Amino acid sequence: MSAYITLLGAPGSGKGTQAKRLADTLRIPIVGIGDLIRTEISKKTELGKLVQPIVNEGRLVPDSIITEIFKVNVTEDLLRSGLIADGYPRNLNQAISFDETFKGKPLKVILIYIKVPYEKLKDRLMSRGREDDTDQVIMTRNKVYEESTEPILDYFAGRVCEVDGDRSEDAVFTDILKLIKEQA
């Protein structure tokens, strides 16, 4: 399948779980922007040298660098075989660069938004038992998501397929697969 699939949704919406299931079922790779950053750092590339101090200080890598890392690593061969993106685009600036990157390419871009009510997200995150999943941290993560990621939904209006994520993992997966088959 020659498609670029990206899953959008708040922390706890099930993006990671669904991406893994899609990768296994469709036999296409997941490309995570965090993994790409770590690879650039480990290879000691110019981009890696540029982002290492930013990452070491716990700061967010600027959009321009994220976009450049994405462009350098997501090759034509990878695009031809198809891929699932994890973490890109994550904000409006990245969404605009994302659009420019794919303009004119013979590739189907499929954007899927997994929508889950906040209380359900909070319950899911609290049940993971991770030390950093406290009420305050979850509320902060959700606020950051709303401020930075939700504007993407407006930008891509008419191109985003919405899935009700407040159901079983299997039901959500079935709907996502159906949408991908309809879009492809």
State the CATH class: Alpha Beta
Supply the helix-strand structural class: alpha/beta
The number of distinct helices, counting runs of at least 4 residues, comes to 10
Round the Cα radius of gyration to an integer and report it: 16 Å
Distance between the termini: 8 Å
Q: Which CATH architecture?
A: 3-Layer(aba) Sandwich
Order the strands across the largest sheet as they lie in space: 2-3-1-4-5
**Main sheet overview:** 5 strands, parallel
CATH fold naming: Rossmann fold
CATH superfamily: P-loop containing nucleotide triphosphate hydrolases
Question: How big a fraction of the residues is strand?
Answer: 5-15%
Q: Report mean pLDDT, rounded to a whole number.
A: 90
Tell me the count of domains: 1
